[in-house]
Amino acid sequence: MAPLQQPRKQFLDLPNEVLIQIFDSLPSLPEYRISVDNLRQTCRRVLALCEPVFMRFLELRTSSASRKLAFLLQADHQRQDHVQFLVIRPSPSYNDANVALILQHIPSFRYLKSLTVFAPLCEPGEEPAENYEAFIRTLHSQLHSQTFSELQDCWINVACGSLEFFDPPIPPFQISKILRYPKLKSLYLMGMELESQVETIGRGSSAVKTLHVEECETDDQTMSTLLDAPEALEHVVFDIDSLPINSFDGSIELQAVQSLLSNMRRHPVETMKLISWTRERFQIDDFKNSFDFRGLTKLKKLSLRLNVVLYGDSLDPSSKVLNVFEHLPDSLEVLECIKVTPKDVQGLTNMLLLRPIGSRLPVSFRRLQLEGYRDFPQRPFTRLQQQENDELLHSIDVLMAQIGLPELNYILVGPFDVARRIKARRVCNEHCTANADSTRSYELAEEVTGPPVGYRWTGVPEYDWNYSEGTVGTMEFF
Length: 478
Known about the structure:
With 478 residues, the chain is an alpha/beta fold.
């Protein structure tokens, strides 16, 4: 009877405790001492080579992670020089009373290139927790403790909305100190009070090229510093609700908007986005005179999210889109207008039929992108819904013809984040010549994206439409 064969045991499959005992006993044997020493030296070299890569990007979410990092830095102070990208994002699911500890290491990272800080979650109008106040105060002191000589990108999102609850109040962020970082290229500020009066900074002395200011409290001096300090701004996102407001009714000072655009004229701004979250009411003439972008001679892309109501000569909400068209720089290539409903598109088309503006468009203009919000119905359409859809498509066709647009994107965001995207692109066929404006051909395509789970379009037929002579298009669903 053959003896039972025992399974072969791999050396590395042994328990860690056994392996440790084996390696600890090997140096006592002369014939293995050199090999073990070489192995240890090799491991140390591999660790030294890999550690800068491991320490290059850090994300801290809890105070316990901060304590572990402190232990590593104390063991070897050179490790702090390896950190180049730091993200501080407190975990919303972890009630961390000592969350401010994760900010303690910021000044020690001398070669930090990118800093992103998110404050703990805090609902607007509710009294913030104690850990939030400690976090904000610590962040304020750490950012002002020294000049970060290598920092290129700084993103700070406080966004509490409840700063009035703090007693004593949290001091404003001294924006002039942040702008003094010598290599800073991108600055993102959200949900904080800004101040620049404590320390002045020379005009054009900051290297910032991308500036994003949203939901911040500012004054005239701070606004002047934000726009005068950078040498050459190229990309700007600005919340006009952050501008100084009218003390009488709390509305936006249109003079502040004029000053904002006027101060930007000295910068080679290529992309700009203006945001307005609160609902404002303006006279049409005041709106036209304030939102004049013609002085921005390098502007290529303009995005507007203006929650405004115009009144005066016309109550048509599409007036805000029409008046923007008349004040665009010749360099503009793309215009995005957000919160534009189908009625806005149809109203704008009707106004264009009476007041053509094709001759006023920039010579480089190539795409108009509109975005609105609407509970669009499921298919198949009812008779009334089909009529409304036909009118929308017809308005897009006429709008492109009146303006002479080569491309138009219209996005409707419905419930459950379902987006209906209508793309219209001007094409030239064999009957189209360079001088034959009467022969226009457009390809339209509709796309539904982002449906919820278990929800999909079915039975959607191909839809052909033909409204005017010389205009042919096809509606495709995909």
